Records
---
Amino acid sequence: MTVAILGVGVMGEALLSGLVQAGRQVSELLVTDRRPDRAAELTERYGVEVVTNATAVKRADTVVLVVKPQDMGSLLDEVADAARPGQLFVSLAAGITTSFIESRLPDGVAVVRVMPNTPALVDEGMAAISAGSHCDEAHLREAEELIRSTGKVLRVPEKQQDAVTAISGSGPAYVFYVVEAMIEAGVHMGLPRSTATELVVQTLVGSAKLLRDTGEHPTVLRERVTSPGGTTAAALRLLEEGRVRADFLAAMEAARDRSRALSSGEPV
Ligand SMILES: NC(=O)C1=CN([C@@H]2O[C@H](COP(=O)(O)OP(=O)(O)OC[C@H]3O[C@@H](n4cnc5c(N)ncnc54)[C@H](OP(=O)(O)O)[C@@H]3O)[C@@H](O)[C@H]2O)C=CC1
Ligand SMILES: O=C(O)[C@@H]1CCC=N1
């Protein structure tokens, strides 16, 4: 069972490293990238064979597309002649629909759409997958198994993928943004940057574990931190006055709308 990864940037490498760590034979993996220096780096790091896009599609049972949404049309045009019915194509691109991919490939090629995220790099990814129209249970299981090597996988109807992209696809960036702001606040209050960073990062990891391990509602966990008339209440009051919650809603709606626009090929 040969898997080809087309486009090995940030997400493609997260998948490649997850597959290698999960015990996939490197001899059953192929990768492509358009920069020769990047290709050489991947061979050196993983011992994986780098080939052209057309060769990868000819030789693979499963083809994983991990180029930017804007590069997807030209990549599909380049490989369409090499694709054959019965093959599975898995796309990790934001906004690109299964019907867009199906329309550019021969009839009978199965397509699965995935929205992963970068914690996949440390095997803590969250991905949602959706079936295209020529896809059966075996194809979905195959895609799930691939992606599970980088973390959790959930099945969702394709119409939910733009919202998923706004939440878990882009989500790590919102978290890092809050982390940056908290570290800066610590520095403003006179803490050494290294101290502020350690405090914030461990607070984040601990809070995430508390959420996941207890399964308690975030409101309950927040209330447990908020002593009447105390420090947390003072901070949360300011966040409410600043309409931070409403801003989060508007921001994620903007991300969802951008995902929808990418599907219609709207330029940057
Ligand atoms: N980064 C993220 O957090 C997430 C990304 N995604 C999706 O993953 C996809 C990839 O994103 P990301 O990894 O961040 O992007 P990158 O730019 O890091 O990776 C894309 C890679 O594909 C290469 N490439 C482009 N065109 C071709 C081609 N025709 N043939 C072979 N290789 C090609 C690029 O080369 P070059 O460097 O020369 O351009 C680059 O190395 C996107 O569609 C994105 O929507 C999904 C969820 C999260
Ligand atoms: O910003 C983006 O378009 C990609 C998709 C989700 C996360 N990064």
---
Amino acid sequence: MVTGPYQAAQARLDLEEPQEGQVRAVPVLVPLALEEAYDYQPPEGEAPPPGTFVRVPLGSARRIGVVWGAARTADVAPKKLKSIIEVLDVPALPAVSRRLVDWVANYTLSPRGMVLKMMMSAPRAFEPEGPRFGYRAAGPPPDRMTPAREKVLNVAADGAVRAKAELAREAGVSAAVIEGLAAAGSLIRVEMPPPRPALPDPEHAPPELAPEQAEAAGKLIDAVRRGGFSVCLLDGVTGAGKTEVYFEAVAAALARGQQVLILLPEIALTSQFLDRFAKRFGCRPMEWHSAMGAAERGRIWRAVAKGEARAVAGARSALFLPFADLGLTVVDEEHEQSFKQEDYVRYQARDVAVVRGKLGKHPVILSSATPSIESVVNARQGRYEHVRLTSRYAGAALPDIRAIDLRADPPERGRWLSPALVSAVRDTLAADKQALLFLNRRGYAPLTLCRACGYRIECPQCSATLVEHRARGKLTCHHCGFVLPRPGDCPACGVSGKLVPCGPGVERVAEEVAERFPDVPAAILSSDFTTNLSEVRETIARISSGKARIVIGTQLVAKGHHFPGLALVGVVDGDLSLAQGGDPRAAERTFQLMQQVIGRAGREESGGVGLIQTHAPDHPVMRALISGDRDTFLAREIAAREAAVLPPFGRLAAIIVSAGAKPEAERYAQALAKAAPPAARIEVMGPAEAPLVLIRGRYRYRLLVKAPRNVDLQAFLRAWMDRAPLAKGSVRVIIDVDPYSFL
Ligand SMILES: Nc1ncnc2c1ncn2[C@@H]1O[C@H](COP(=O)(O)OP(=O)(O)OP(=O)(O)O)[C@@H](O)[C@H]1O
Ligand SMILES: [Zn+2]
């Protein structure tokens, strides 16, 4: 058994001796789809305290788990209880993290072990850290001296230990030179202490804040200095400098020696953000997202657990890092739907960040130019402090937004840009500014149709048409990833040359741009291309620097970018996201998306323009965008939600029943609905065929549960599932509390 420094400090001896027929038992939760912790015998009479990572036998395997409660005396024969194999030399999982696991599991109706699994998603953190070696000067100079060797010895003359690559880099020589010097005895290889993350310095480069910014920052700083739980909604127009403002609260927390977590919706793309952080604090924050390597994950997990990592910028999963002393969480772009995780444990990261603040007694800042209705209502009802920024930094005016009525001013046949939009792009280029054309649809065309027989090419495993990606010569399913090489003949009737693409995606708009503006450098920014992170980052840099004059992008371009030369944003299809029937947030989301994407225009100089192509210029969302009257829009939307008892005034849970065969799914969904316990104030709707009835070969039915805010929805759902008929065969049931997707 290993007892390292963490356990040595925490271990306590159990003095109470078990009686005959009794045994000391410690509950251990393992990161599997299990609800409860299992009992184990502590190693050698010494009970590891709650939070300790231990290795235990489970079935025929060994697993790493966490001690989930205090040791107690159990009435079991000692033989019946397996023993903890080993106590790991890893910092214990803090009590706040354990309470968070319990809370998330209870709220989302997920097995506790699955939530713990998210907290342990860095397997390398639990393996012993291998020693690192470096070189320092030693012994006499080598018999054979070369200029390269001399350079190395000059660098090493200070006696410091450096990793091989570092020493080679500093001396400007190859690694072989170092090895040669070590063989000659002039350098010695020694063990190095583990690397420590760079410390962000709160005093590194404080900005000069505009008066309104300073006032807002003051309120955020107060919350940090006061300590304890609070939530501030930092609500400021696009380009107001919200980042600069919340950085001051970050600085205040760092100055108190606490850790800071900043959640970003697209961390993999936000090198701009990391650089801004470095400019303010002297070094980049630690990054945490799915594109990181295993070794790095392990290193960061440990650094966070030891309190050495002071600032972490991450995707939603960073919430589940084992912070030793978290003093502030910032959720940037808090309205973003991508904060909702849509598989395994279905949680909304913004909400969990608030809960984490409550459990850990620290402030939380939610920042957005287009806050969610949920947060606006919380601010109005006084649960959140509302901190506003009403004007852009540097005094630039907000963009002027106008609709292009496609009924009156349509594009030519087979084109997607109306004459009005084309001439606006032309004027923008003539003024030496950049233009952005926004269409939230990847690929070339969303539908391929056979003119001979009318067949629409669909995914064999999903009820969805395949999207053409012309650059790759493929048709792809955006739901399951199915790929078909672009056929020449119709797969249904076999006639050749009759397949036509219908409707536009960004690639097709880019094609039109290339035809209309052949000599103008353009760039496409689409999440298709995120497979290659460095390429996307390069594209963003090309746009920021002004090299790309026309940008064609999906919602990826809407996310917090600052492109100084961008003056015009044209929305190719403003009606696209409004058409999501059955989604209570469709209007809200359209409003946010349009405001965000148009908010990229005119950030450094006034005169930014947003043009929205729409068939419904009189729709309340369009009217609100054009008049810039956010408050009226919000008031309307909030009143409608309240009247319909929709979030945040009511609570929703979706239940998705799926099976390999349609009748099987339907039958079970109906049986499940019948088993719902009677509850006066809870409404169960459905089952109904899901809008996407088939995904990955599974047929889907949906039920929607609606309850007033003060009803214990989880208790109802649990009671229901306890009475539900057994799901047999291929039937699966998913519960999605607070759903954001209604497909
Ligand atoms: N006090 C300041 N001093 C210097 N530069 C500032 C200051 N405040 C803001 N800026 C600059 O103004 C630009 C816009 O700021 P920022 O990106 O933080 O806006 P934002 O409020 O986050 O906007 P959005 O919601 O549109 O992303 C940035 O380039 C930022 O560096
Ligand atoms: Zn598919």
---
Amino acid sequence: MTNLIDIENLGKRYGDFVLTGVNLAVEPGTVVGFIGSNGAGKTTTLKAALGLITADEGTVRLFGQVAAPGSAAVEELKSRIGVVLDTCAFPSTCRVGDIASIGRVAYATWDDARWNELTALFQLAPKKKVADLSRGMGMKLSLAFALAHHPELLVLDEATAGLDPIARDEVLDILRDFMATGERGILMSTHITSDLEKIADEIVCVDNGRIMFAAPKDVLTDEAGVARCRAADVAAVLEAGFFAPGTARVLRHDYGCDLLVPDRFAFGRAFPDIPVDKATIEDYMTLTLKGESR
Ligand SMILES: Nc1ncnc2c1ncn2[C@@H]1O[C@H](COP(=O)(O)OP(=O)(O)OP(=O)(O)O)[C@@H](O)[C@H]1O
């Protein structure tokens, strides 16, 4: 099956910041979570992938096709994508009820019934001005707009930021519903990694403009673990050759050391006296990015 989006060797320079060699793909039926610290390059990647900024290098294939920027072909491909960026894109004087008219002009596939359904679900009153919406309500408005034209791919940049936990769960339910056909996909950047634990299939982590790891979510959260070690335990594990030199990641705390282990079951068998917990996406990212390499 053709990927919904293929980003190959993407590069972009902003002064000292260099995004380079970014590869990322969304297969039909998958949700890809895109994570990384502030300023790591997530928004730059997403904007370059959508042609909102010009990349310095790389190729972006939408639905299997590469089309020239600004061409009718690329506009047609982009109309099959629903986009939510981290700011509400509608004019502040617009009222919620007026926004459907923008959708009707912009998208041949615009669906008024779906728009009405989503704005009602999100409790967005038609008379409310965009300027008077809270940040969370603005995100819901953008999400309703992105979904009401029945996209095949959703690209979300921090779309659940600013939403309270109940609203985030509502949004996650809508995203699950969107994925139910098995042919669509989502590429979403977020700092709320617990949302990705609920919905993502793949996790891609960028740091300082480079991809640091890309793996199925289950590998990170089911197989990987964090061993709670004393300093002597770390030395023993390294001495036993459990890790190839330089591949262990250790974070020291006042009360001991956390050691990232790729297979917590194998670790538990090899070192039954060292407690090992399941890793979260946040553990995996923090230890990979901030852990001392041993
Ligand atoms: N228009 C721009 N002009 C100059 N530098 C920019 C521009 N946009 C982004 N940058 C720089 O590019 C780097 C990456 O920014 P980007 O917004 O992609 O990070 P991010 O991973 O999305 O961060 P955050 O999680 O904070 O949203 C940062 O150093 C930022 O200052």
